[in-house]
Design a protein that fits this description.
Layout: H1 19-25, H2 33-40, H3 44-50, H4 53-59, H5 62-68, H6 72-90, E1 107-111, H7 126-141, E2 145-150, E3 158-161, E4 167-170, E5 182-183, E6 185-186, E7 189-190, E8 192-196, E9 202-212, E10 215-221, H8 229-232, H9 243-268, E11 275-279, H10 286-298, H11 302-311, E12 313-316, E13 327-329, H12 330-337, H13 348-354, E14 362-364, H14 365-371, E15 375-378, H15 381-390, E16 406-407, H16 414-417, H17 420-426, H18 449-477, E17 497-502, H19 518-526, E18 532-537, H20 545-558, E19 567-570, H21 575-584, E20 587-590, H22 602-608, E21 612-616, H23 619-624, E22 630-633, H24 642-666, H25 675-691, H26 694-737, E23 742-750, E24 761-769, E25 778-787, E26 793-800, E27 802-803, E28 808-814, E29 821-829, E30 844-845
Parallel strand pairs: 1-2, 1-11, 2-10, 11-12, 12-15, 15-16, 17-18, 17-20, 18-19, 20-21, 21-22
Antiparallel strand pairs: 3-4, 5-9, 6-7, 8-9, 9-10, 13-14, 23-24, 24-28, 25-26, 25-29, 27-28, 29-30
Helix pairs in contact: 1-6, 7-26, 9-10, 10-11, 11-26, 18-21
């Protein structure tokens, strides 16, 4: 018989053990070893199996709980853990110690997925794990943040393999009561937020709260009796369904998520956020709801509310290619917004204009995100450059480098990902693992190469044991008999160079680049003197047939009895498996097509554990590779044939593995330690450790995003929205005057026939008709730079020009470069509420 409904009953704890409930439901335990040790001491075998304190409390026999309730030593340990959590939640941290009254009282952080722990399976891959690390680092730093997302009743998917190596998906149904979540209630009743749907219907969502250290994470759930059957399924799966399903999720995430934050803060007294950060464009509709709130509460028009909305919005894009951006058919967007019920008082035509792109039939979520945010960034320095080029059409007339999209390189949460054995060896506690600067004693103090090498082997040995367990389980799931799986006991060797490759499996990540020449790969794996073993893992999106074919190619290769002791594919890649891989692999492999990997944080986690990266110079590796912390796979730049490019880059990969990496790993001294290898490991730990931390990333967001956004919000909203109204009036004036602004003539003058050499002072003059604009309302600039055959300026130097009030402008500057030099004059808008001169996408050139 099948149950018609499922539910979870939590354990009833004796009064003396009541504090365990708070410890189990606050996800700080995921990065706090002492709390995990406390729960492990209750039943080590059970804890190692479930790895979830809340599940453990449910699974423990009542008799064991009764024993612990009178165990003085355990109770003392528990009281100490509870007191430590209370201190962590209340004490001033980095954010509270900043002497700046403009810091926002709270920041709302929106993401479509959050990978905090495998005990809360609400993520698919890197975007979600990054969001989880962002919240953890914000908690450690004391940043007053509220996370906002959706709760998926079937999560992403669990991956298995068919007998012929094809990916098979299944979606286990979850009960939120079984997870470290609590339902937001008011007077004992669930709090619901509503968003309007077409045909007069309403979508209702209840709100579950996870506690991520100091950070509340609000997850909206539509599986409630208040909804029609089809609307209950809006939050059924992550990244599932058709366009209609996706737009419902994104409307709920943005508009419903904003309403959930408002309601949560009203009920709990949490400060209302002043700054809103969207992790990708999925929640971009929240800007419309914020505008509606201002319009209805303060009587402003949409154009007057828009500056206040933009001032407080930070938008992070993770997409390096246009094809990766969420787009919806315009008629689908019209269906949800035209009747005016979803965001009353916001003209649907303005909604459509925010998402407009070159294709008039599509609504572009990234374009809307950029138009509703005053600050935008990519997630690595290279990705920032790629994004400026990709979105440059939104800012015509500006050079790529002037497009207002900056970069904040992603980071990872050290306490979550670093092996505790390594932190103990290096004398770092769990708090210090998350710091982004030099702290305490140098890493090498009192630690020898022999000790580090012994630890690296220990971590590799743990990975080998896990690989054998998972390989055996995978074959059993594929239909093999236990009698024929004796060979799995000899899969991998703890003394063999171990390479890891684990990530999502879209085509651009090139899972099968390593198979380009199977014979060369086989020779590397089976080399008698310097063998290599390779562990591969990753999921393909259920709708990505090409990605599934790549997985099948790998599986068919690793199924070969000749090589299967040296190369494995592990299905169902998740955070639990990832920790074994990051800690136990000697080399972390990454082979994307260059400029298609926005950041790629898996290699950062390996580096924090002493792994060396072997990667195409893409994402974070492009800016962090220094020649001594790993290897850069040469790229076949300029080769347009993708097959030829793959062939060349695969050959370079084989050469590095066979001629540099393996020889260095196996080059042992008299003590059996590879000194050259360990010098690179030490260098990686010392130099990359601080750079790849999520604490560094969150500090950058505070300093370059949240703080200036908070100041701009104060400017825009203070004194009855005086700043926002001023900027709206200014934009109206620009609409009339800007098309008539003209630069009539320009000249460059050299005094006293001075020679034209570097450093010569020159004067640039121009006559300009400002068409009714005041000189204080524009920024007139002289730009001097090198010129090539096409007269395009490079390495430009920009100098402001001053006017005489009747249209004559001039500037003095020194010639900055030798060689062929050119200059131009341009006019830009100027207003105190503009973050950059390019913000309004208006410029007039000579």
């Amino acid at each position: 018989m099948r149950a018609v409904r499922r539910f979870t009953v939590r354990a009833s704890l004796p009064e003396s053990l009541s504090g365990l409930g708070d410890l189990a439901t606050n996800l700080r335990w995921t990065w706090h070893p002492p709390t995990r040790d406390l729960f492990a001491s209750m039943d080590a075998e059970l804890f190692n199996r479930v790895r979830d304190p809340l599940r453990m409390l449910t699974a423990l026999p009542p008799a064991r709980l009764d024993e612990l309730a009178v165990d003085d030593a355990f109770l003392a340990h528990a009281r100490e853990a509870v007191a430590d959590l209370d201190r962590y939640l209340a004490e001033p941290r980095w954010y509270q110690k900043q002497d700046d009254p403009d810091l926002p009282p709270a920041v709302a952080y929106f993401s479509m997925e959050f990978g905090v722990t495998e005990a809360l399976p609400n993520y698919s891959g890197g975007l979600g794990v990054l969001a989880g690390d962002h919240l953890k680092a914000a908690s450690d730093l004391g940043v007053p943040m509220v996370g906002v997302g959706l709760l998926y009743r079937a999560g992403y998917f669990r991956q298995a393999l068919s007998l012929d190596g094809w990916q098979v998906e299944h979606y286990p149904v979850i009960d939120p009561n079984a997870f470290p979540l609590e339902l937001l209630t008011d007077g004992g009743k669930p709090v619901l937020v509503d968003v309007a749907m077409p045909a007069g219907r309403t979508l209702h969502a209840q709100i579950w709260k996870a506690r991520v250290g100091r950070i509340p994470l609000l997850l909206l759930d539509t599986d409630t009796d208040a909804n029609d059957e089809d609307l209950r399924a809006v939050t059924d799966r992550l990244y599932g369904g058709d366009a209609d399903h996706r737009i419902r999720q994104e409307i709920l995430s943005g508009i419903g998520g904003f309403r959930a934050v408002r309601r949560y803060c009203e009920l709990t007294g949490h400060p209302q956020p002043k700054v809103f950060h969207t992790n990708e464009g999925h929640a971009g509709f929240l800007g419309l709801e914020r505008a509606r709130e201002i319009i209805q509460a303060d009587g402003l028009a949409f154009d007057e509310a828009l500056p206040a909305v933009r001032a407080g919005t930070v938008f992070t894009t993770h997409t390096p290619v246009s094809a990766g951006i969420d787009r919806f058919p315009v008629d689908l967007v019209q269906r949800y917004f035209t009747d005016g019920r979803l965001v009353p008082d916001v003209d649907p035509r303005r909604v459509l204009a925010l998402g407009a792109e070159d294709n008039p039939g599509l609504f572009n979520m990234a374009h809307m995100g950029l138009r509703l945010a005053q600050r935008a960034n990519g997630v690595s320095a290279l990705h920032g450059r790629v994004s400026r080029r990709m979105f440059s059409r939104l800012w015509p007339g500006f050079d790529f480098d002037e497009v207002p999209v900056s970069s904040v390189t992603n980071g990872v949460h050290g306490p979550t990902w670093v092996a505790r054995e390594l932190s103990a060896l290096l004398g770092r506690n769990h708090e210090e693992l998350g710091l982004d600067g030099a702290q305490g004693k140098p890493l090498r103090d009192g630690v020898t190469d022999e000790q580090l090498w012994a630890l690296r082997r220990e971590l590799r040995e743990k990975l080998v044991a896990e690989v054998r367990r998972r390989v055996r389980a995978a074959w059993m799931q594929r239909g093999a008999s236990a009698l024929e799986l004796g060979w799995t006991d000899t899969v991998f060797d703890p003394d063999v160079l171990t390479v890891g490759f684990a990530r999502r499996v879209p085509t651009y990540k090139r899972l099968t680049l390593m198979l380009r020449d199977p014979d060369r790969l086989r020779a590397l794996l089976l080399d008698e003197r310097r063998p290599i073993q390779l562990v591969v893992a990753g999921k393909s999106h259920p709708a990505d047939e090409g990605g599934k074919q790549l997985i099948q190619q790998i599986v068919r290769f690793v199924d070969d009895p000749e090589v299967r002791r040296r190369i494995v594919f592990l299905p169902d890649y998740d955070m639990s498996m990832a920790r074994y891989l990051y800690r136990g692999c000697d080399v972390w492999l990454n082979t994307p097509v260059r400029q298609l990997e926005a950041c790629g944080t898996s290699g950062m986690k390996s580096a924090l554990n002493g792994g060396l990266n072997l990667s195409i110079r893409d994402g974070w590796w492009d800016e962090c590779y220094d020649g001594s912390n790993g290897w850069a796979i040469p790229t076949a730049d300029g080769v347009t044939d993708p097959l030829r490019r793959d062939e060349l880059e695969a050959a370079a990969l084989y050469d590095l593995l066979g001629h540099q990496i393996a020889p260095l790993f196996y080059d042992r001294g008299a003590d059996g330690v590879p000194g050259g290898w360990l010098s690179m490991v030490w260098h990686t730990l010392e130099t990359l450790g601080p750079r790849v931390q999520a604490s560094r990333m969150v500090r950058e967001y505070v300093e370059s995003g949240y703080l200036p956004a908070s100041r701009m919000v104060a400017e825009a909203t203070g004194d009855g929205y005086r700043g926002a109204l001023s900027l709206a009036d200014y934009r109206t004036k620009l609409d009339v005057s800007w098309p008539r602004v003209r630069i009539f003539d320009t000249e460059l003058l050299v005094e006293d026939s001075a020679p034209m050499v570097t450093g010569t002072e020159v004067t640039i003059r121009a006559r300009i008709d400002l068409a009714g604009l005041e000189p204080s309302e524009v920024d007139v600039q002289a730009v001097v730079g090198k010129v090539g055959d096409g007269d395009e300026l490079s390495d430009p130097v920009t100098v402001g020009m001053s006017g005489d009030g009747i249209g004559a402008f001039a500037a003095r500057l020194k010639l900055p470069h030798p060689g062929s030099i050119g200059y131009t004059v341009r006019v830009l808008p100027k207003h105190r509420l503009l973050a950059t001169p390019a913000e309004l996408a208006r410029v007039v050139h000579a």
